[in-house]
Amino acid sequence: MSTEGLSRRHLIGASGSAAVAGIVVGAAGTGALAPRGNTVTRGDDAPAAGAPGSTTPALALDAAIPFRGVHQAGIVTPAQDRLHFVALDVVTKDAAQLRELLKAWTRAAERMTAGAEAAPGGLVGGGPNRAPEDTGEAYGLPASGLTITIGYGPSLFDDRFGLASRKPVALEELPAFAGDQLDPKRSGGDLCLQACANDPQVAVHAVRNLVRLGFGIVAVRWSQLGFGRTSSTSTAQATPRNMFGFKDGTNNVKAEQLEDLAQHVWVAKDDETGGGAWMAGGSYLVARRIRMHIEVWDRTPLQEQEDIIGRDKKEGAPLGQAKEFDTLDFAKKGPDGETAIPVNAHVRLAHASQLGGVRILRRGYNFTDGSDGVGHLDAGLFFLAYMRDPGRQFVPMQRALAKADVLNEYIEHNGSAVFACPPGLADGEYWGQALFA
Amino acid sequence: MSTEGLSRRHLIGASGSAAVAGIVVGAAGTGALAPRGNTVTRGDDAPAAGAPGSTTPALALDAAIPFRGVHQAGIVTPAQDRLHFVALDVVTKDAAQLRELLKAWTRAAERMTAGAEAAPGGLVGGGPNRAPEDTGEAYGLPASGLTITIGYGPSLFDDRFGLASRKPVALEELPAFAGDQLDPKRSGGDLCLQACANDPQVAVHAVRNLVRLGFGIVAVRWSQLGFGRTSSTSTAQATPRNMFGFKDGTNNVKAEQLEDLAQHVWVAKDDETGGGAWMAGGSYLVARRIRMHIEVWDRTPLQEQEDIIGRDKKEGAPLGQAKEFDTLDFAKKGPDGETAIPVNAHVRLAHASQLGGVRILRRGYNFTDGSDGVGHLDAGLFFLAYMRDPGRQFVPMQRALAKADVLNEYIEHNGSAVFACPPGLADGEYWGQALFA
User: Fold this and answer.
1) Closest Cα to residue B339, out of B313, B367, B381, B310?
2) Does residue A291 lie within any of the structural domains?
3) Does residue B236 carry a pLDDT above 60?
4) Contact at CB, B211 and A301, closer than 8 angstroms
5) Number of domains in chain B
6) What residues of A are in contact with residue B298 (Cβ under 8 Å)?
7) Mean pLDDT in residue range B102-121
8) B241–A199 CB contact, under 8 Å
9) Cα distances (angstroms) measured from residue B419 to each of B87, B150, B167
């Protein structure tokens, strides 16, 4: 197989970033990258791609990211630019059907993250009298950094599938928070699939093909497109801006901070609330659809915006400091004798030092979903965050924010869900194997 | 001013395409590119950027596209990857207010397409006690090929603003077509703004800032995000795929086909239905939100899919031919004695030869807007097409399709609008100037 035609137009060059572990650039072995499309001749019945490959100093936004590993990809993977997220309900009562679907999803997800069609038959391999095994809209596109991350909602552990005894203590529905305006049609779900990619067509294609495989077994409960990442999950990435125009996630837990990840993100085998062996190396995902009232925000004076956030707008520096990554000094006073970072500023309330050391790994996306029917854009932040135990991390953090954060005047949480995202898969393993074991 | 920091990471290299007229790469003069952000030092009070610049052989997805010219940008401009489209209603009854807004929009649009903030004050220039003059979420991002195209809906020409006598004959609301399932909340509008860019954050930022400038004067009626282009508008672009997995727009009118553009796309001064001088060099835009029932389509056999479209799925070749750009032969018979392209195939019904020579310039985008509440993704094609007279082009074409196209089993038109997009602006001219003259 030839890899000559692989597009490399999305090379990250300007930033001069060092390579980040886990990014595979270039195909070293046969079938390592099995791209869709015209430029590379690929047997439609090529085996599902594994993930060997050589790493090079350049990060290619087109490249494939290994599907298997200790942890699922899509958590500490440097946050891709675009997102398609879907929550599904299981509509069968047959646990065996569900297990077969999880197996089929594993095969398809592994193929698609390598840049191949969803199934060996591909676009036309099944012949004229069969429906194609891949829906085709990503044919010819490279892997585009696609990751597909699965999560199990609390409702999956009811009495339908024999999983009640496997339910982790940490996998509780979130409590109600002050100000919540949750829409049930944008909340919950038995399962979730998070598809992140640098080309949204690739992310949408992945979700669509997985949903298709689940026809009659699962049904879409809600889905969310994210057009731009609002978090960095690697020190090699620049901090993006959210829809309030501020840099977001400067102090995020990053892929390179292994001790912090172990402490705050990855479930350990002996975590009391973690769920035991099947969740060791996994993480809990909290998803919140946060509508941002951008029209109101946009009429707010700069100083007030900065006081609410606790950072300056242009540089993203903590108030009282000069540079984005300067340490936050909550005691430092301004010329007026008040603390430079106000007592109810968002960065103060959400900071680990104010929450007994709690941190989370944020992985959110900006969204714009049409209009709200009363003359405004329906825009905001689709908040995604990974953590070791939502009850000990997200819940106290959100309680503090819901109580005092001035930002609440400008936002509205209207969707909410929590999922247990199991660890990564070893060779030959499939999603659900450890869960159902 | 330095341009050293301009990101060039999105260079189109692999395709080796020739330069397409109208793409400005690199900044030649002071202020030619006035990018937002950190890497280039720019005075926040820099004059609104003009569009001089040198052209180079490489097409940069990051580059700025000239705002002024004979025609509006965003029509034959090589279709950018992402779209944010908004339809607005005018809520003031004061024509002078509307004219002032159109002037302010012109200034802001010209700045943003050059990569600058929406207003000279920019992110922080207005000082701490004023709301920033730019919302900030695109700060630091390059121009990203942004174009902003304005259109006027039929309802703008009622008795509110003294424009009734200016209404072009061609600017009629579209008639009802068989099968239409139009949602008024996704249809119509006094005005539209089409923002196309290669970075969706830049497109969303542009719409958001223009909407903001119109607070109290206009209100958002509906908006639509498009995640991936489904048309090429230049021979230098590869044909993308729609959500049915087929190449779309192979035979589109292209930027390089000047005679075809003159015949089918640009309004001529003496067009009986065109609207006269103020529309000469402009074009009429038809927008249709087409929900695609992808779940049903995905269960349809390959041969049936190809017969419905009239092209093969993999190559996009007309049935009976081998290559995408081979000429369609509607008479050619297959081995079974039937025409290779079935009598009711989409490409046959929509082809100029079947419609008295009618052609249109398509510029549509794939969309995915969450779920439909009954277990499916709400996905489809946001159809945008430019033409000289909808009544003589889109209407007969859509009548033919609505009557016989087998594709109708799989799609649903649920939004519709038509707009008059005036010609491009000369130096110093502003939107609405010729209209209100």
Assistant:
1) B310
2) yes
3) yes
4) no
5) 1
6) 131-132, 135, 212
7) 96
8) no
9) 10, 9, 11
Match 């049409």 to its residue by tokens: A370
Amino acid at the residue A99: R
CA-CA-CA-CA torsion sign (B214, B215, B218, B223): positive
Residue B22 lies in a domain: no
| A42 within 8 A of A35, measured Cβ to Cβ | yes
DSSP string, B265-326: TSPPTT-TTT-SGGGTT-EEEEEEEEEE-HHHHTTS-HHHHHHHHTB-TTT-PBTT-SSTTS
Tokens 């220039």: give the residue: B125
Question: Of B8, B201, B301, which is closest to A14 when you measure between CB atoms?
Answer: B8
- Looking at residue B35, what is its pLDDT? 58
Given a cut of 60, whether residue B49 has pLDDT beyond it is no
- A278 lies in some domain: yes
**What number of other Cβ atoms are within 10 A of residue A95's Cβ?**
15
Report the C-alpha gap between A48 and A91 in whole angstroms: 28
The tokens of A309 are what?
């956030």
DSSP string covering B229-250, please? Answer: E----STTSPP-B-TTSSB--T
> Nearest CB to B298: which of A10, A140, A212?
A212
Among B381, B433, B431, CA closest to B210? B431
Q: Give yes or no for a contact between A174 and A390, defined as CB atoms under 8 angstroms apart.
A: yes
For residues A148 and A164, is the Cβ–Cβ distance under 8 A? Answer: no
CA-CA distance, A231 to A79, in Å (whole number)? 7
Closest CA to A301 of B126, B131, B122: B131
Q: List pLDDT tens digits, range A183-238.
A: 999 999 999 999 999 999 999 999 999 999 999 999 999 999 999 999 999 999 99
Give the separation between CA B19 and CA B244, rounded to whole angstroms: 31
* Percentage of chain A lying above the pLDDT 70 cut: 86
Instruction: Measure CA of the first residue to CA of the last residue in chain A; give whole Å.
Output: 38
Distance CA A427, CA A106 (A): 11
CA distance B259 to chain A (A): 31
Give the CA count within 13 Å in the CB-facing half-sphere of A43: 8
Instruction: Report the pLDDT value the prediction gives residue A186, as an integer from 0 to 100.
Output: 97
B407, part of any domain: yes
d(CA A170, CA A187): 18
Range of the domain at B324: 78-437
What residue has token string 């000239």? B66
Residue found by looking up tokens 């960065």 in the block: A347
- For the record, the structure tokens of B270 come out as 């003496």
Do A335 and A342 meet the contact criterion of CB atoms below 8 Å apart? no
Q: How many CB atoms lie within 10 A of CB A128?
A: 12
For residue A176, count CB atoms less than 10 angstroms from its CB and return exposed for 0-12, middle for 13-18, buried for 19 or more: exposed
What number of H helices and E strands is found in chain A? 8, 12
Low-confidence ranges of chain A (pLDDT < 50): 1-33, 38-58
- The H or E element spanning position B85 is strand B82-90
Note the pLDDT tens digit of each residue in B258-297. Answer: 999 999 999 999 999 999 999 999 999 999 999 999 999 9
Model ipTM value: 0.89
Structure tokens at A52: 């060997």
pLDDT digits (tens, 9 = 90+) for A49-91: 332 333 333 458 899 999 999 999 999 999 999 999 999 999 9
Q: Closest partner residue to A313 among B123, B215, B375, by Cβ?
A: B123
Q: What angle do CA B373, B375, B379 make, to 5 degrees?
A: 80
pLDDT score, position A42: 27
Q: What is the mean pLDDT of residues B209-232?
A: 97
Q: Which residue of B229, B242, B246, B302 is the best one to mutate when testing the A interface, meaning the one whose CB has the most A CBs within 10 A?
A: B302
Reported as a single tens digit per residue, the pLDDT across A362-392 is 999 999 999 998 999 999 999 999 999 999 9
A183 Ramachandran zone, left/alpha/beta (phi>0; psi -120 to 50): beta
